[in-house]
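Pipeline run #58 for the internal structure catalog. This entry was flagged by the ingest filter as a single-chain record with no existing model, so it goes straight to prediction. Upstream metadata was stripped on purpose; only the residue string is passed forward. Reviewer on rotation: M.T. Logging verbosity set to normal.
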Amino acid sequence: MSPARRYVKEMGFLRQVRARGVDMTVDLTGGDRAAILSFVSGARYRLGWRPKKGFPAKEDFIPTFPCLRQGTIWCCRNLDVVSQFGIDTQNLSVDFHIPETDRALVRAMLRKQKITEDDTIVHIHPTSRWLFKCWKDEHMAEVIQWLLSRNIAVVLNLISGKA
């Protein structure tokens, strides 16, 4: 997507957010762009990481409730933001509802590839919309070969997510 088209799309999204009159935004990135969007949204309460040094015009965009980094493990760091504002984050269980029609579709797709429900399956998404986040092809191939050599079924998702 061209920068101009992306800008138009983001401005449209921002207009929708402002029109809804959101009360609160939660910025889990700590980056300039998210902080600016949070500020421009008009939300009265903006939760987020305390800006890093060198943040442009940080006095203007600092969250109304800046939170301190707690030094938690990577997967739980976003919970730090909301937990510092009284939201209970003790229950980390995740429950996904998958409709039976979708389960049947996946079983049929796996059966077509001779993968049974007793097989160990590893799902790999080797692409990213940001090339710098992609692993080198030869490294990805080495991991896939290692899994296959141990009779582990590998399912690849090759959709990049780019619009």
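catalog note: The chain has two domains: 3-83, 100-156.
catalog note: The first strand starts at residue 24 and ends at 27.
status: ready for reviewer M.T.
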